[in-house]
Structure prediction request, 143 residues.
Amino acid sequence: VFFMDEATKFIETVIRNMKNFGIKVMKNVVKQPDLNPEDVTGQSLQKMDIQSILDSIAVNESKLQVELSLEVINSLMASYQKAVEYFSAVNDPTYKTYMDRMHLLLQREDIRATLDSGAEAVKQSDGPGLGRQVPPIEEEEKI
Prediction:
């Protein structure tokens, strides 16, 4: 079961691996309340539609073969993460399969290049003043 401490370790491991492969990582997350242990119980897992998640993985893996985009990559990564969380919560070793798929995805040169280009596009669009033009400071005239 992934409780908050373990989930944080998992994310840190993924980020560390991404950095090892030369992928620039920007952590822009809003701090949300800690995960409530009741949220990962069997009852909450019954609400999770694992078949929908697995279908999403299959669709996004197929899309990725023809469309290399940040949207597809991010969607696939999110689906992998949900599958890992689900299978680890029910003590099913299948979670390792999806964790391995995520790692293999991040090792691909084309994926890293796309992620890097997306990070660069975000930086360029934010620029100084978060996208706003900052007017120059004018000196007062001395009389």
